[in-house]
Amino acid sequence: MVATWMMPAPAGAAPRLPVPYSFAAGIAAQLAAPGSAPPGANDFGCRPSAAHPRPVILLHGTLGNMTDSWQALSPLLKNNGYCVFALNYGGAPGLFQGYGDIADSAAQLDTFVDRVRTATGADRVDLVGHSQGGGALPRYYLQVAGGAAKVHDLVGLAPSSHGANLGAILNLLDAFPGGRAAFDRLCPACTQQDRGSAFMRALDALPDTVPGVRYTMIESRYDEVIVPYTLAFLTGPNVRNVTVQDHCGLDFSDHLAIIYDRVALNEVLNALDPTRTTRACALSLPVLGG
User: Fold this and answer.
1) Could you count the other beta carbons within 10 Å of the beta carbon of residue 240?
2) d(C-alpha 46, C-alpha 38), whole Å
3) Of 21, 52, 204, 229, which one has the greatest count of Cβ atoms within 10 A?
4) Is the Cβ–Cβ distance between 193 and 62 less than 8 Å?
5) Which has more pLDDT, 184 or 279?
6) Largest CA distance in the chain
7) Residues 120 and 47 sit within 8 Å (Cβ to Cβ)
8) Mean pLDDT, residues 40-64 taken together
9) How much is the pLDDT for 178?
């Protein structure tokens, strides 16, 4: 087990940001400052270092947002020397985001990627996302919407790489006249990510990966949304699939908790810097993380 602790910052160095490994921190931040950028993110004056030459863009999942999703990972990346950026996509201003048509969200992502590249001077960016933000959205962006030339790494946390099994929910909606159509109007991204949707069938007809992009998919065996959890994984060149329980038997994180799970977030750091091979292990609980 690796004990996680912080060394004092050298004199003159920027103070290290706190890293709260609890989803409660995301809820508190959303209540205190709705729609705000997470700590350490969206400094458009940041210039990538030689050690970490690519800015990192964080992509929340369906019905999440950048405020409640990234109170741990954003400061963790900033503390480790990365330029970090985050956005809300796929929704009108408000608490819930990521419900819009995935093709439209990919266009929003492309605009933000170009803004970050222009501000930082970086040729390519790294994408780190949760659920839709690590799976269906970036897969579409890279494979269909022309984003591959702008991205070096894709790191997914419980990603919907091959969709999710929403059949039971959709079948229940079919019991009500117009139920499925109404649900699709409210959350197009939800029905698009169903394993049997036309959107996912078209995406899965393509190769999982594109040349020139490095992929790391990080998943928990206890994911109750991506079922079976292996739907999160990809096949192809430059792919690394990580099951967090292979590194830590104390990790009980689920689909939500994984973005506040120090075991999973440590693997994000390893993915972005392959010279780093540190392992972490700590108790992580469903929903809350740890």
Assistant:
1) 16
2) 15
3) 21
4) yes
5) 279
6) 66
7) yes
8) 96
9) 62
